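help with this record:
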Amino acid sequence: MRNVLRAAVAVTVFFVGIALAAAEFGPFTVSGEKGILIVSRQRFMIRHFDANWSPVAQNDGRTATADGYPRQTANSFEWRGRMPIRKDTGFFHLTEKVTTAESGSIDLEMRLRNNDGVKTNSIALETEFKLPDALQYPIVIDGRQIGFGEKWDKAKKAQFFFPEKTHEITISLPDGLLTIQGKFACNLQDNRAYGGKDWGLRLYFSEYSGTLKDTQLRLRLTWKQHRSTPLSLAEAANMGFADETDGDRKGGWSDQGADNDLRMFPVGKQRFKNIPFDIVDPSGNGGKSCIVLRGETRPYFPASAELNAKGVSGRYLYLLHAVAWEPAHGTKVGAVIVESERAEYVDQESMKFDIVAGRDVANFCLFKFEMPSRALDEAVFAGWSIKLPGEIQNAARNRSLSVVDGNILFAGSHNHIPKIPGFQSDIGECDADDHPNAFSGTLETE
């Protein structure tokens, strides 16, 4: 079986106060200050809408912890306190308890009480999915994948409501799969229909509208880490990160000299936006650490590169890459071609994915100039991901497909130069952003 990663471009692209302590249970973190649950940077908190649809959330500044709380043991965490009502001096008494269950799971119990009753339109545990990231990560409710389009369409429904019963929800997140089980009503909502910029998932309490005196929510949350396999660029790398002399056809990166190279880029095992990459160390690879391909400004770089994936298979491929001399947004700067000899598992043996400036990749200089003031993992990211086989992940997904082996080709045109410092195979998602700076890939498998 032949697994090959190839790249070809006519662009120069590079691949490469006082706070209460939080409780941690594996991947789950619970804030000691307000009891907010976080997993894989996804925040879950209570949101209440009063009789006038005025909202207040658990992270409100008036939320207060009761004396003597939180209480924590090796296997449990309990938070008690008060959660305010938006336009009122009243509040709910909130009790929250987290208990470890089977491996990778926690049981979450939440209870809200008010002796006089609070007039309510909605109360739920809510999490929000930022766009365009939400387009990349499947949300499956009771076996049905749910979501909305890249752009809000007022002609289409903005909510998917599921009445109370025993539900199972799976959410694909950057570094794992979250499963939520319990008896509740739930709703996935396109908040753009109401002036927002994201999607919201609401898990409703046992009583979630009317005059509420006592209402509860019980869930089991299970986390399964994605498996990942770095695809090393060592064999295919043709340039290093450091360059001393502009235009001498030696050295590294885009051959623009010491004032415009990427010598500060970290090597070895790195995580950018929660996606793991293994960046080649040029000191142990003959001075080569990345793939740099030609463009009009640097026509002497190779037009293509090929990398043997050595039997690695997966469902997603993540790219960490950038261009030099970036053209206008919307311009095609290259392509990725996935080839496989296991045609019985894919629709075709060769699949091509265009790389578009401003959508999938951007100028590496944007990262370089921001580096002193920004954390590295905030400035570098996997610009886009490919679902194997099938569609680019920041486009609409319409099917679930099997793991395949792959050959990847980078191809392009015009006067920008693609650059690649690494490749990786993994399962998870990718944060899209506007300024990638090095190329690497992540191939994901379950």
Remarks:
- The CA atoms of residues 144 and 242 lie 49 Å apart.
- The longest helix spans residues 364-370.
- The mean pLDDT is 75.
